[in-house]
Amino acid sequence: MIQKNKSILFSLLQIMLMLLFFSCSSGQEKSQQVDKAKMKEQLIRANKLFVSNQSDDIDDYVKRNHLQMDTTATGLRIKIEKTGNGEKPNISNTVTVDYEVSLIDGTQCYSSDSLGALTFSMNHDDVPQGLRQAVSLMSAGDKALAILPSHLGYGLTGDANKIPSNAILIYRIELLKIE
Fold first, then answer.
1. pLDDT tens for residues 6-41?
2. What is the DSSP annotation of 11-60?
């Protein structure tokens, strides 16, 4: 899995460097436009392949752990493990969650046990998009397991602390409060 992702990242890097080279070199404009279009197509193909490979890795994890999860159009996997009886949050709400986030290999990164409950606005980018998506599918009092592909987590850069680049994240979430 790691080797496959490294080779895809290397291919992406090569494509981006070639795109940069072609955009900076002199020559005929039409030739550059064709080269840029080809590079863009290759980059799109490489990104689709990377997302597909991550989806396969998540599917393997789900299968190995005998999980029954729903999959959203964005690739988020979610399972409501305990149903609460509260309302669902909307875009204008602020929510408070207990959480644990780990990597797909089981390495724990963060948790509310050590850092306290997490409070965030549903309409701001101060948490990963996938966490906001998962919470939007929950009701107050729900406990859920959510698996975020890297494009819904911290993406290409990671969080510059405990979450590496292109990391698939496993969130255990309890929606405590909606304001």
1. 556 666 666 666 556 655 555 556 566 768 888 889
2. HHHHHHHHHHHHHHS-S-HHHHHHHHHHHHHHHHHHHHHHHHHHHHHHHH
